[in-house]
Specification:
The chain folds into 2 domains: 15-78 and 361-478, Aspartate Aminotransferase, domain 1 (Alpha-Beta Complex), CATH 3.90.1150.10; 83-355, 3-Layer(aba) Sandwich (Aspartate Aminotransferase, domain 2). Helix content is 32%, strand content 16%. The chain is built from 14 helices and 17 strands. The protein has helices at residues 15-28, 68-71, 80-90, 104-116, 130-147, 170-175, 179-182, 215-227, 253-263, 316-320, 342-355, 364-374, 413-422, 446-463; strands at 47-51, 54-57, 62-65, 121-127, 157-161, 193-195, 231-236, 240-241, 247-248, 267-271, 295-298, 310-315, 384-390, 393-398, 427-428, 430-432, 435-438. A 7-stranded mixed β-sheet has the order 4-12-11-10-7-5-6, with helices on both faces. Strands 1-2-3-15 form a 4-stranded mixed β-sheet. Helix 4 (104-116) runs parallel beside helix 11, helix 8 (215-227) packs parallel to helix 9 and helix 12 packs parallel to helix 14. The longest helix has 18 residues, at 130-147. It is globular.
Length: 480
């Protein structure tokens, strides 16, 4: 697929400059979540341009952005409306603090978010990214319990799901539960109550739908009741857990948990960093079950993938606990230099208007269904344990045996091999361990969806052929 409006070549795109940049990358750049083998360094693709849903690397390869540049790019790259909003704001100012001052883009964005979010969320606290949105929510919940009209100073703990991921700042890590991300930092973390994730494929209660009658929700409701006097909040990713491996909760689980939190006077924090802004087919995942959280965490797609910006939204009841004269000391003493950055806010406003155009969000579910249908041949693959999807969030779980769901012999190796191989078929994707994640831009076309599916089927077929025992993941030469 050729670009409609090619981007100008970067100044450093000649072969000598590119070779120098690759050396600098190897010698200086510390890539997040990436192992580095000094004896066998792997050169990642050097991306030099974007074109719609595609990325172009230094070799001229066009790679479909199958993970929306880490789940944040909604409308594609070099979007005229977003470009214009960004350039228009640069003509006014690049940044002005929200500490003791305000500015028009942040005010307008706060108002637009209140208009779009679940009814009752009336206050917007801006920060930088998903982890900071969660960190703010955790601190707000704790301080709220101390300053509410009937103070509850004993409510200092949190309830979170197993296998949860909420970011990489320390509070967010504490409520997270993925060992490969979090175990090293255990000495720095506060204790958290855990409840099993609502996974129908691996039901922690050994039950199955629909005969289970939402037993997982009943277990969560019971724990909320048992620990209510100590719980400041429960934090969940509504409808689908992202970094846990695209685990879709059964319908009704979220509503049952929200009702229990309300009845037992426990705040509900909805982490919609990954699920917000149309990813699940609704503007917010909470909308699927009519849930209104006390605190709503937003980031990633907020600016359409253009700039870092996050928001923690709160109800008026929560915000009221922080009001009073300066001498009362009730303010929320927390903030960030770039909170509500005008450039990010201007682009976020433009992105929201695109999402709210008639018919835009209605296209998400059909596109997700098309992708799932195109991947249906994998359901017969002996090493594919599950394909899970909500909207345009899809995960393919690779296992040793489909019947038992036993993990692969070297955890995470096969997922990485498949993603590496997928580049040869014009795809840029990333795994979560041995779960292959597909989260393309919402703007993806049906033709591009087919390209994504065909390329992934080919990559999986080469790395783990359907013939039992033929997979490359078990060979010593692939252990790096």
């Amino acid at each position: 697929m050729t670009p409609i409006n090619p981007a100008p070549a970067p100044a450093d795109s000649d072969p000598a400059s590119l070779a120098r940049l690759r050396l600098w990358d190897r010698d200086h750049l510390w890539h997040p979540f990436e192992p580095f083998d000094a004896e066998n360094p792997q050169a990642p693709p050097l991306i030099i341009a974007g074109d719609g849903c595609w990325l172009i690397d230094s070799e001229g390869n066009r790679l479909l952005d199958g993970v929306s540049s880490l789940w944040c790019n909604l409308h594609g790259h070099r979007v005229p409306q977003l470009d214009a909003a960004l350039l228009g704001q640069t003509g006014q100012m690049a940044h002005s603090t929200l500490l003791g001052a305000s500015h028009i883009p942040a005010v307008k964005l706060a108002r637009r978010l209140v208009e779009c979010a679940p009814v009752g969320l009336t206050r917007v606290f801006f920060s930088d990214d998903g982890a900071t949105a969660v960190e703010a929510a955790l601190k707000i919940a704790l301080q709220y319990q101390q300053q509410r009209p009937d103070p509850k100073p004993g409510k200092t703990s949190y309830l979170a799901l197993t296998d949860a991921y909420h970011g990489d700042t320390l509070g967010a890590v504490a409520v997270g539960d993925i060992p490969r991300f979090h175990r090293q930092f255990a000495p720095l973390l506060f204790p958290v109550q855990r409840v099993a994730q609502p996974s129908c494929k691996r039901c922690p209660l050994g039950l199955s739908r629909p005969s289970c009658a939402l037993a997982c929700a009943r277990e969560t409701v019971t724990l909320i009741g048992l620990h209510a006097d100590k719980l400041a909040a429960i934090i969940v990713e509504p409808v689908i857990q992202g970094a846990a491996g695209m685990v879709v909760a059964p319908e009704g689980w979220l509503a049952a948990v929200a009702d229990a939190a309300r009845r037992h006077d426990v705040l509900l924090i909805a982490d919609e960093v990954a699920t917000g802004f149309g990813r699940t087919g609704r503007l917010f995942a909470c909308d699927h079950e009519g849930v209104i959280p006390d605190l709503l965490c937003l980031a990633k797609g907020l600016t359409g993938g253009y700039l870092p910006l996050a928001a923690t939204m709160a109800t008026e009841k929560v915000f009221a606990a922080f009001t009073g004269p300066p001498s009362a000391g009730r303010a929320f003493y927390h903030g960030h230099t770039y909170s509500g950055n005008p450039l990010g806010a201007a682009v976020a406003l433009a992105s929201l208007e695109m999402l709210l155009e008639p018919g835009y969000l209605e296209k998400v579910e059909p596109k997700g269904a098309r992708l799932q249908a195109a991947l249906a041949p994998l359901l017969d693959h002996p090493c594919v344990g599950d394909i899970r999807r909500k909207g345009l969030m899809l995960g393919i779980e690779l296992v040793s045996d489909r019947a038992t769901l036993a993990p692969l012999p070297v955890p995470g190796r096969t997922g990485r091999l498949v993603c590496d191989r997928a580049r040869a078929f014009g795809l840029l994707i990333r795994p979560l361990g041995d779960v292959l994640v597909l989260m393309p831009p919402l703007a993806i076309t049906y033709e591009e969806i087919d390209h994504l599916a065909v390329g992934l089927l080919a990559a999986i077929g080469e790395v783990i052929p359907a013939r039992p025992g033929a997979g490359r993941q078990q060979t010593p030469e692939n252990s790096r």
